[in-house]
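Section: Multi-chain targets

For targets with more than one molecule, the full set of components is provided together so that the structure can be written out for the assembly as a whole rather than chain by chain. Components appear in the order listed by the source. The example entry contains two components.
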Amino acid sequence: MTDLEQLREQFHKELADASDTTALEEIRTRFLGRRSVLKEEFRLLPQLPEQERREYAGRLNQLSQALEQQIGQAIETARRAETAERLRDEWIDVTLPGQAPRRGAWHPLTDVEERCLAVLRRLGFERAEGPEVEDAYHNFDALNIPQHHPARDMQDTFWLDGGRLLRSHTTTVQARVLGSRPELPVKVAAAGRVYRNEAVDATHLAMFHQLEGFWLEPGLTLGHLKELLSFVARALYGEDIKLRFKPKYYPYTEPSIGLDIACTNCGGDGCEACHRVGWVTIIGAGMIHPAVLREFGYDRDGIRGIAFGWGTTRMTAQLLGITKVRPLYASDQRQLSHLHRGMTA
Amino acid sequence: MKLTLAGLRAFVPGLPEDVPALRDALDASGLEVKGMETDGPQTVVTLEFLANRGDHRSYAGVADELAARLGLPRTGLPATRLTTSAEAPAVTVESGRCLAYTLTPLTVTDPGAALPADTLERLATAGLSTGLTVVDAAQAAGLETGQPVHAFDADLVAGPVVVRESRPGEAIRLNAGEDPRELTAGTLVVADREKLLAVAGVVGGTEAAVSATTRRVLLESAAYDPVSVRLAAGALGLSTPASQRYERGSDPTAPLAGAGRAVALLENAGAAVRDGDTAEPVRWAGPLPTVAIDAADCARFLGLGLTLDDMADRLADYGFRQQEPGVFQVPGTRIWDVKEPEDLYEELARHIGFDELPGTALPAGTGALPTRRETLLRTIGDTLVGLGFYETFTEGFYGRDTLKLLAPAGDHPLAPHVRIGNAEDRRYSMLKNNCLAQAVAAAAANLRFKQDQIRLFEATRVFEPSPEADNGLCHERPVVWALALGSSDPMRWSDKAPEMDFFFLRGAVEEIALRCRADVRFVPLPPEHPLADSLHPHRSARILLGDRPAGVLGEVHPDVRRRAGLGGKRPCYLELAVEEWEYEDRPAVLPPFREDPPVERMLDFVTPRTVTSEEILAVMRAAAPDWLRTLRVVDVFVPGKAAPGERSITYLITFNSEPARTAEEINGILDVLVAAVTTEFGDAGVRLR
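Its structure, encoded as tokens over all components, is:
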């Protein structure tokens, strides 16, 4: 039989000298492993007389458990210390910027357009498209803007070969859709580029974006138009926005109305953004003119139409709080990124 | 147009003192207030008029609107009642486009006499003062009543006055010291025996103009066909107060009254006296038109329980007189814009106030879904945005400078363009038939801004000239283009990310195809493609969906880069033909997912440029057993001394692990694959590495 006390002392001595988990694991193996002195003593137990074997087995178990506990604690302590040291070595400067690939962005104009279309979809308006190269019939004549009509002044037009032109408004889509004589009711939204032959500067563009909706159904009234416009304005600008309606003139609607909202910048007090008026016109609208209905054979059965539209370029500028719209079309990625942050702020 | 508040009060004495209330009334009347310089009685208001309301363009017109809106009495200014007779100056009218004409002779008694202060104030505010009393009186009459009045120096008029259409080659001097302006033949003019006195309704000539020495005057007041005036003014590039009024339709019953106001101003000021009766060779033939309304329909339209009597009372405030129940005579000031029942509904709505009209609950209905095209574009865009691209907008046109970046020769497919005939700016001389030029220009602009990490895309249209097109001019083809330049991961600072190249954009297309559930392939770009000359001939590809061409991508050609001043930067360009793409919104039908971990093997072939990776993959797929799971490229290595184009491609091959296969069986399959590839391409130089 081995002197167990001596073994214990030897263990404590080596434990005290060990400085890391490797040394401690080696001590554990030597004192408690399968080929350790202790394990050998356990294997020899059957050879001892009964009484002695019991007493010695008790002492062996006690010692084994004690050593196991002590070495376990020592290893855990050492592991923690080593882990802490390793983690200290793995220090990073968390103030350095992140490295995940960044998303780009839709153009703010598209964001605004999509927001508007989403509102109109809730009301049942489905999008239709039309060509940008148009003819005078769909751009003017079918919309009650005959040759030499003053309204043609408002829309200086890019003329192409063969009497074609670049559409000066998205109302052409109304003419195209109605020209296909669809079954009623018709609820259509159109959005896209339009062109005006203007000298370009910071606030004037030769190409910009519009959005428009129209609705044909028997029995529509001015009240429906007002309700629809109020819904659209509140959906886009907030439930509490202050509204007013005023007379306007568009050749293809009668009556024509404009929807003003209290300037979102000054709340209606008057500021630079609203030219000290306090109101900003956001939507032009009206009941589709009888001449337009006649043109497409809808002057029957009490059919009336509602039409409305707005410049999404202008609306985007309003929402972004910018007065110069030219940068919206500059393809300057710095600006696009900057505007995107403005839209998502 | 600028008007004084004091000037308006002369017509509507009861106007509110409260400026905001007045402003609201103007806005509610369709007289948009663009500015207000508040200064007590000197307050000036700047109005923008509706394009169809010529009658608004005067103090009387604005006053009529305000009086009706506010329910206030309307007063007038003194006017002389003119008498017409055959003893009047000789005038003939030879054109039906002159609807009414009067000419009143005057003798100037005191050329320096002053007009009333309030009239002078109105003129000054509108910027119409000339300092010549006769001319100012004529201008003032127009400004106050809305009926343009013009004065000729009678001593400079030779013989009888005639209103006629101009003859070929006829010209009129409009400004002293300038050459006469030749008129388009058929322009309505006022002439004497020798010369043209005025372009009717637009502007007077200098040769019979009133001056400080004028002693006898012919005061003209007329009405003309609006289109006639509009064409004449447009041809001369002029816009005068008279032409603005006439173009929108003047009151053909008002010429005598307008002249009467000018005469009253001059007579009351002691500046001039009538020198005989007024000539009126043409009086408007009338009668004033009528418009019938259905009172019940009108009430429904407005959402109010108005009776016909209510309607008649309100319409009377705007000068519409009920002739018989529901039939209203249109006043002369409105005959050009009130023709339909809805026009009268609009009058009633304005009288009541659009804000006061009730809303009507919208009928319940179902919402709408995005169209397939919208969904497709949203899918493509979302994919590109996710890959770091920013959407941009370029214009639908460009000029020669932009097209020069591609330098298409005369017979090149990109040479023909749809031309813009009347562009204000040369940069807009033609509709774009490609997007590459603008994309490269955008890259160059960004580089000038020191922005060298560029990822832009746009959904737009190109206009391809074709007489076979539906519109006889051009096909309007929707495309999505994207341009990438710079680091593939510009936010990375810990190590250098590779530059975006052909394969970056190809990856973008593959991702788009995945999201659209489309099978996409890439083949070398054929030289006949319109963009082939502008892209790198060996780093460009046509995109195929099945066998349909559906786009193009490639590195921008060095010549294009040089023309754009891109230096050593090598942008890559992608263009998708939107009409060829579809978004498939049904879930893809996939083979069952296998949970058994795959058995992986690799094969590495050294391959010459004459054999593509796609061809090797196709041979291996054909030779593989049906328990092949995947086959893909995991590495491409270009040996140091390789022949040009030679590369070593490593393929990762995975097999199903269940049912279990022996290593020998799997290795046997690899031998089959190698044999298939080397048999097919061994002669071309493909070998196992």
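Chain A touches chain B through 93 residues (CB under 8 Å).
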